[in-house]
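For reproducibility, we list the full input for the phosphoenolpyruvate complex.
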Amino acid sequence: MRKPILAGNWKMNKTRDEAIHFALTVEPNLPKEGMEAVICAPAIILRDLVKRCEVIHVGAQNMNENVSGAYTGEISPVMLKDTKVEYVILGHSERRAYYNETDEKINAKIARALEYDLKPIVCVGEVLEERENGTTNDVLKRQVTKAFEGIVIANPENVVIAYEPVWAIGTGKSASSEQAEEACKFIRSVLADIYGEEVSNEIRILYGGSVNVKNVEELMSMPDIDGGLVGGASLKEADFVTLCKACVE
Ligand code: PEP
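The corresponding predicted structure, in tokenized form, follows.
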């Protein structure tokens, strides 16, 4: 019912030529159906990637909540739409930590993305201290509730949430499949409280945090995990193909 997604978050990696080489290499080997392969690339190479990709769906890694104006260095939803990208990551923990992105700002970005028909991949997740002091669910509830405050979801299939425990990102220390499932299931229950069961059952919830070719099968076998948001392992052609294949049910 929910089509799995494997979204690569390339962060600040790959030049244009490297990205095109990657796309041309992996595309013939990706599953033709049963999942969506997404690459969220640096903004400066999005246009070239969109032109070259036939199977891969292309996404941005961030977006300003304003449509235009005096915001030096920023990229607007209009520009992303003009570039024909489909997805946009919003509220990644690196944006929250290094660029002071608040729940309120992320809420404004989600509203704007949906207004411009961009599919948001909304990242939420607790830091290590919060996991250790038992407040993971409180954090997830706050982040999800604030992110979606006042937002009408007309097409739940166009909204994606990524549960990314901050302690698992880029550390090589993935959450266990049980921890990841528990958090994704909890997020779905928060969505059900806001939007009702039917809508919450259509929203795709990904797990992200040190997903690799060894742990992907087990993580993807969990009922509330509808795919992965993957950093490091998505940079390697062969690994990306393996991760995508593991998402096909
Ligand atoms: C990420 O950047 O969203 C991520 C999950 O990174 P990694 O897979 O490298 O932990």
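The pocket of phosphoenolpyruvate is lined by residues 9, 164, 169-170, 208-211, 229-233 (CB under 6 Å). Residues 177-195 form the longest helix (19 residues). Both points were considered when choosing residues for closer inspection.
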